[in-house]
Amino acid sequence: MKKLLVGLALALSFGSLANTKENNKNEQVVEVQNCYQIEIYSVEFFQGIKLGSMKIGTHRNLCTSSEAWAWYNEIIASYDGVGGYNPLTKTEVRIQIPLMPELLAKNQCHDLGFSVVTKPLPSEIM
């Protein structure tokens, strides 16, 4: 038992000695800007059955990873209430947004902002 206590004491003292590095208060953490993309889809349903989906637009932003989450939440909020039920065609349109922004290579980060894709929904074709 005495050897166990001595070993434990040595382990604890070594751990405290290993952690004595002073932190430099002047160190700055530089976040890297990356290119993020969010593709927005419109999904159409008829009585709960999926008729089709289409990409309605793409949002791109050049920002840090922490800024990307704030930007992502703004995008989600901007689509709140979009879509709905059409009693004439008995179809429902829902907006589909991915769970997280997609990370792109920086050389693909042209056309920052929002680009619109204009294609008709299946019910508009009929």
Give a description of the structure.
With 126 residues, the chain is α+β, with helices and mostly antiparallel strands. 28% of the residues lie in helices and 35% in strands. The chain contains three helices and six strands; from the N terminus they run αββαββββα. Strands 1, 2, 3, 4, 5 and 6 form a six-stranded antiparallel sheet that branches. A hairpin with a 2-residue loop joins strand 1 (34-46) and strand 2 (49-63). It is elongated, with a radius of gyration of 26 Å. 8% of the residues are buried. Keywords: Signal.
Structural class: alpha+beta
| Oligomer state of the chains in this structure | single chain
Largest sheet composition: 6 strands, antiparallel
What is the number of domains? 1
Mean pLDDT: 79
**Strand percent estimate:** 25-35%
Q: How many helix segments?
A: 3
Secondary structure: helix percent: 25-40%
Uncertain parts? none
Termini separation comes to 84 Å
Keywords: Signal
Signal peptide: 1-18
Topology:
Elements: H1 2-18, E1 34-46, E2 49-63, H2 65-78, E3 84-86, E4 91-96, E5 102-104, E6 113-116, H3 122-125
Antiparallel strand pairs: 1-2, 1-4, 1-5, 2-6, 3-4
